[in-house]
Amino acid sequence: MRGLFVTFEGVDGCGKSTQVARLAQSLEAQGYPVLCLREPGGTPLSEKIRSLLLDPANGDMVPEAELLLYEASRAQLVRQVIRPALAAGQVVLCDRFYDSTTAYQQAGRGLDARMVSEANRLGSCGLAPDVTLWLKLDPAQGLARATGAHSPDRLEQEGVAFQEAVATGFEALAAKEPQRVAAIDASGTPEQVETAIYQVVSQALEVCGLRAAVAADSAHSRGAAGD
């Protein structure tokens, strides 16, 4: 049975990494096989590309080069890690995917929408998330969170105006694909955000049949033990 592909999106500092870890812990406690990934990254090659993209020293990177680097990292991750994991029935939780490219490079950088869409199609190797969780947070608040504990990376250095443009991009995505993109209020406590996320993901698990499969495996094990 194919696994479930869940992506987490939002402006910098919205709490994606925290919520990926919390959801993974909850699902693993119930017996689901979970794989946590991040973009860009997730493979040796993709992590090297990540370093290039986030290094403040590369401040002269042009938007087109930025777009292509993200897509190259993504293609390697999809082919090498995500597709095999889904084929093995795992729940794949990914911190960012192609929606971030639409929000950051199209809405944020102003690149042509058709060009970004075609680049996303190539970089994703045709793979789309089953569920996308958009952690909705005020861009200024998110940026303050993101830069509060470390020096800002290349994208964080773009400032609040850039993050506001990115947020507008995510808003448009959620309106365009409400069946896939779930808006989650990320201004609450981590526990409140976690609860809202779990409600969405648990429904997706039921729809795709993974919950039933886990239950069936457990029932089979109990029956075998009683034989």
Automatic annotation (TrEMBL):
GO MF annotations, alphabetized: ATP binding; dTMP kinase activity
EC number: 2.7.4.9
GO cellular component annotations of the record: cytosol
One BP term from GO: dUDP biosynthetic process
Boundaries of every Thymidylate kinase-like domain copy: 8-197
CDD domains linked to this entry: TMPK
Any matching Pfam family: Thymidylate_kin
Catalytic activity annotation: dTMP + ATP = dTDP + ADP
Function: Phosphorylation of dTMP to form dTDP in both de novo and salvage pathways of dTTP synthesis.
Family recorded in the similarity comment: Belongs to the thymidylate kinase family.
NCBIfam families: DTMP_kinase
Protein name: Thymidylate kinase
Source organism: Muricaecibacterium torontonense
